[in-house]
Write a structure and sequence with these properties.
9 strands; alpha/beta; 51% helix; single chain; globular; 3-stranded parallel β-sheet; 2-enoyl-CoA Hydratase, Chain A, domain 1
């Protein structure tokens, strides 16, 4: 539990994938790798038609990258390897053969926003404020940009990026297209997600698969693009500015 975990339950053609990390559901490399592998596995599981992605707790959906691990990065190669974890996860969600529904019950920061954007359809609570703090830290939201931009557009992404210390409400995220529905409580959100998942689980699987491909048309180049973005972030991680800011931000 100290290093976080991934739990998956499957029933009635619906796979519920829950991730957890004690530091506000942030992602160290090992957890990124585990979640990536889980999506790859579920993509080929003939007993699964719909995936629901969620995290444990109420206050934070995902705090993005693990600051502890980022501060341990000593070389450009180590930095690239870390950010490739997010690149690989987004690409695994993009190419997954199953429709992915997201339950965003709390705040999402940085990579957490990217994770929500990589879902095909997101439910959220009023507590699900979002923020891209990367530019403030000194690295920029390079890896997750394609996924977020695809959902909310250039203008909203620019605003979210430059307002790096400002929280944007769940309603704002809904207006921009990141969230499909926003609910007053976690229970209402979960009920709504289950309701849609049950309906979709009874649709023609081939029709869902083909439609998923339509959703993600024009993204085949992301494998190379996100790797290039990981290289930019990996190099920026070595700057004194970034390391000093991370230490202050962590405190």
């Amino acid at each position: 539990m100290k290093e976080g975990n991934i739990q998956t339950s499957i029933a009635n053609k619906i796979a519920e994938v829950t991730f957890y990390h004690p530091a506000s559901n942030s992602f160290p490399s090992a957890l990124l790798k585990s979640l990536t592998e889980e999506f790859e596995k579920l993509s080929e599981n003939k007993e699964v038609q719909i995936i629901i992605l969620k995290s444990q707790g109420d206050r934070a959906f995902c705090a993005g990258a693990s600051f502890d691990e980022l501060l341990e990065v000593k070389t450009k190669e180590e930095g690239i390897l870390f950010f490739m974890g997010f690149a690989n996860l987004i690409n695994a969600m993009r190419t997954c053969k199953k429709v992915i529904l997201g339950e965003i019950q709390g705040k999402a920061v940085g990579g957490g926003v990217g994770l929500a954007a990589a879902c095909d359809y997101c439910f959220a609570t009023e507590a699900a404020s979002i923020k891209l703090s990367e530019l403030f830290i000194g690295i920029g939201a390079f890896v997750i940009e394609p996924a977020v931009l695809r959902k909310i557009g250039k203008s909203a992404f620019t605003q979210l990026t430059l307002d790096a210390t400002e929280w944007h409400t769940a309603e704002w995220a809904k207006e921009k297209g990141l969230f499909a529905k926003v609910y007053a409580s976690k229970e209402e959100m979960m009920d709504a997600a289950q309701s849609l998942a049950k309906k979709l689980a009874n649709y023609h699987p081939e029709a869902l698969f083909q439609m998923k491909k339509v959703f993600w048309e024009g993204t085949a180049h992301w494998t190379e693009l996100l790797a290039e973005r990981a290289e930019i972030s990996g190099e920026l991680m070595l700057s004194d500015f970034t390391r000093k800011t991370l230490l202050k931000f962590k405190k």
